[in-house]
Design goal:
Radius of gyration: 38 Å
Organism: Streptomyces caelestis
Strand content: 5-15%
InterPro entries: BphY/WalK/GraS-like, HATPase_C_sf, HATPase_dom, His_kinase_dom, HisK_dim/P_dom, HisK_dim/P_sf, Sig_transdc_His_kin-like_C
CATH superfamily of the largest domain: Histidine kinase-like ATPase, C-terminal domain
Order of helices and strands: HHHHHEHEEHEEHEE
CATH class of the largest domain: Alpha Beta
Subcellular location: Cell membrane
EC number: 2.7.13.3
Number of domains: 3
Oligomer: single chain
Keywords: Kinase, Membrane, Phosphoprotein, Transferase, Transmembrane, Transmembrane helix, Two-component regulatory system
Structural class: alpha+beta
CATH architecture of the largest domain: 2-Layer Sandwich
CATH topology of the largest domain: Heat Shock Protein 90
């Protein structure tokens, strides 16, 4: 017990001194820390050995032999610690340079040379973060481009009817309007168009700001689609388009009736305006493994494959026209925002003679 006590005191003294040194150099390189750790291990063994040797009254020759053996171990341990420290520091610097490159806007490229398991795990995490940042930058650029297009198109769409309204108002004011009643009807039409556009902008701003408040209730899709078809029937008759809704299953959904009516209305109006006269717009609803799927199929002739990913983007119109019925390109963006607020999803794909918009909503227990 006495020998163990002497050994413990000697090793503890070396450990306390080593801890103090580590505290002083805590901001220095990892190489210095490893060297101190190796030195503490050897010093603890040497201190314990010397304390025990003096307690056992070893001869000077025996004590020098023990000291020499420990010193050789110290040299080897220190050199090994320095080499290991330099290797780890070199791998760390390579990782730092790679992380700096992707922090400046580039892509992260993991160092090719092998490293420790911890540095390899950190490298994998940085690589995954780099991929996410690249996707985020792409989305940001796409949104910025979409915003610029939207501002340009909305500016044109507002300027055109306002110029017409001003001209008609001046003609009425000067008393030179040949048909005042026709001018008044046209003014009312343009005002309603501007009102719809401002309403769409307000709705889209609420969606983007996360301020869209839903009041969900249990509704049958059969009733919801029936009301939407009734509301779109006058526009369909005007364009000579036939509305079909005979494949609607009476499945219940938990949705905000007002907002989902807007979704159906936007899809139907878009389909009717893109379908030629004597064409058909079909609405269907069914239950699937993913939930409740509501679809609107038109006869537009299809959408170019390169445009399919952009259909629900803000400002996308599918045409470069700036006059009705091109619209402001907000309807489908509003559809996606409302559906996503209901924890659903929207897709579009080409079918024979046209395209099919599908809205998938979470299923409700019967």
């Amino acid at each position: 017990m006495l020998i163990a006590l002497f050994a413990f005191l000697g090793a503890a003294t070396a450990g306390v001194l080593g801890a103090c040194v580590l505290l002083l150099i805590r901001r220095r390189s990892l190489t210095a820390h490893l060297a101190v750790v190796a030195g503490v291990a050897v010093a603890a063994m040497l201190a314990g050995t010397l304390a025990v040797a003096r307690a056992m009254f070893l001869s000077a020759h025996d004590l020098s032999v023990v000291t020499t053996v420990v010193a050789m171990a110290a040299v080897v341990s220190t050199v090994t610690a320095l080499l290991l420290g330099r290797w780890v520091v070199a791998r760390s610097r390579e990782l730092t340079l790679a992380a700096r490159s992707f922090g400046d806007g580039g892509d992260f490229a993991a160092p090719e040379r092998p490293s420790t398991a911890e540095l390899a795990a950190l490298s994998r995490e940085l690589e995954a973060t780099s991929v996410k940042l690249a996707e985020s930058r792409d989305r940001e650029r796409a949104l910025e481009s979409s915003r610029r297009e939207l501002v340009a198109w909305i500016s044109h769409d507002l300027r055109t009817p306002l110029a017409g309204l001003r001209a008609m108002a001046e003609a009425l004011e000067d008393g030179v309007a040949a048909e005042p009643d026709r001018y008044l009807r046209q003014i009312r039409t343009e005002v309603e168009r501007l009102n719809d556009m401002v309403g769409d902008l307000f709705e889209l701003s609420r969606i983007h700001a996360g301020a869209l408040t839903l009041s969900p209730s249990r509704i049958s899709l059969y009733d919801l689609i029936g009301d939407a078809l009734s509301g779109a029937d006058p526009l369909a008759r005007e364009h000579g388009v036939r509305l079909v809704g005979d494949r609607v299953e009476p499945v219940p959904v938990e949705v905000d009736g007002r907002e989902m009516s807007r979704v159906l209305g936007n899809l139907l109006v878009n389909a009717i305006r893109r379908t030629p006269a004597d064409g058909t717009v079909a609405v269907a609803a069914r239950r699937s493994d993913e939930g409740v799927v509501l679809s609107v199929t038109d006869g537009c002739g299809g959408i170019p494959e390169e445009d399919l990913p952009r259909v629900f983007d803000t400002g996308w119109r599918g045409t470069h026209a700036r006059t009705p019925p091109a619209g402001a390109g907000l309807g489908l963006a509003i559809v996606r925002g409302i559906v996503e607020a209901h924890r659903g999803s929207t897709t579009v794909r080409n079918v024979t003679g046209g395209c099919r918009f599908e809205v998938t909503l979470p299923a409700t227990e019967p």
